[in-house]
Amino acid sequence: MVHDPASRSPALLPAGSPPQLLVVVDTEEEFDWRRFDRANTSVLAMAEVHRGQAVCERHGLRPTYVADYPVVSQRHGSEPLLALVRDARAEVGAHLHPWVNPPHEEPVDSFHSYPGNLPPSLERAKLAALADAIEHAFGVRPRVYKAGRYGIGPHSAAMLEDAGFDIDCSPCPAYDFRGDGGPDFSHEHAMPFWFGRARRMLCLPTTAAFLGPTGALAPRLWRAATAGVPSRLRLPGILSRLGVLSRIRLSPEGFDLPALQRLTRSLLARGQQVFALTYHSSTLRPGCTQYVRTERQRDAFLDVMNNYFAWFLRDLGGVATTPLQVFDRMRAERRAVAP
Fold first, then answer.
1. What is the mean pLDDT of the chain?
2. By CB count within 10 A, which of 48, 130, 177, 194 is most buried?
3. Cβ pair 284, 36 in contact under 8 A
């Protein structure tokens, strides 16, 4: 379930603001994404985090590392981030993977891997344990949250508000995770919005969208194209090549530079002001995710990031920012225009 539409209001930057680019890194243990196991807490891939950081710094970007419990509770996980956070070269937020985050009371399965599917008291307890661990490791209380597996739920907003979070980055527009019990974002857009009881918190969704002329029919057509026989016949690829329908997430994971540029141009035309590029920390270690199996693939992955940043900031006249900077600017704009 996404954030309650009744508790939302648009979040905007001042008119005429250049497009804003930020980076959110899902910072987590290495695990088989098809299998959940409480024993999978290795964080060796964190030794590679400097590679993505270097590309970001080359373009003046300060990534936000939304980190989960295995990362922040183990020295090999937290140490690569400590200097970055201390020197204001990066920011740290919270990323909740329930199966490796205490307290451990729920079954370990796909359904309960989405934090929003947990009993409210357990989701709240896990979030508190994670926030405490981040504060212990880095000396700062996290203000940015991203649910593991994009798994925001019906009680999550109230918990984030009570815990003092300012920003949620969980929703992933155009994606439907109901197949194994997750939320459906297929009809969502990537525009930021205020939400919560007092509409105090800012939602910065993952930048993703359907492209093509199908309009409101896109989610239904995509589901049909990716089910059973149509999927085996590679219908999604055919529709994309024909320009009929494609689904793109602003990430070098599985998407090349032309795809990211198409997505960006399309969303700019729709009035999008904020663009969030995302990836997983474990992708930087070859063999840990499906996106990078070799060092050559990792080089290509980093090249996509580098070239996209250069294009966005130079050719589009965009500016580098962070979720917290966007929050401050949008809050100031809301106060300026309030009656």
1. 95
2. 130
3. no
pTM above 0.90, yes or no: yes
Of the candidates 104, 118, 203, the residue with the CA atom closest to the CA atom of residue 153: 118
Q: Is 268 exposed, middle or buried (0-12, 13-18, 19+ CB in 10 A)?
A: middle
Tell me the per-residue pLDDT of 254-309, one tens digit each, with 9 for 90 and over: 999 999 999 999 999 999 999 999 999 999 999 999 999 999 999 999 999 999 99
- At residue 234, the pLDDT reads 80
Four-way CATH pick for 5-207+250-261+272-332: 3.30.420.40, 3.20.20.370, 1.10.1040.10, 1.10.10.10:
3.20.20.370
List, for residues 324-339, the tens digit of each pLDDT value.
Answer: 999 999 999 999 987 6
Nearest CA to 116 among 142, 161, 145, 148?
148
- How much is the CA Rg of the chain, to the nearest whole Å? 19
Instruction: Specify the length of the chain in residues.
Output: 339
Q: Which of 271, 324, 265 is nearest to 66 (CA)?
A: 324
Which H, E and C letters describe the chain, residue by residue? Answer: CCCCHHHCEECCCCCCCCCEEEEEEEECCCCCCCCCCCCCCCCHHHHHHHHHHHHHHHCCCCCEEEECHHHHHCHHHHHHHHHHHHCCCCEEEEEECHHHCCCCCCCCCCHHHCHHHCCHHHHHHHHHHHHHHHHHHHCCCCCEEEEHHHCCCCCHHHHHHHCCCCEECCCCCCCECHHHCCCECCCCCCCCEEECCCCCEEECCCCEEEECCCHHHHHHHHHHHCCHHHHHCCHHHHHHHCCCCEEEECCCCCCCHHHHHHHHHHHHHCCCCEEEEEEEHHHHCCCCECCECCHHHHHHHHHHHHHHHHHHHHHCCCEECCHHHHHHHHHHHHHHHCC
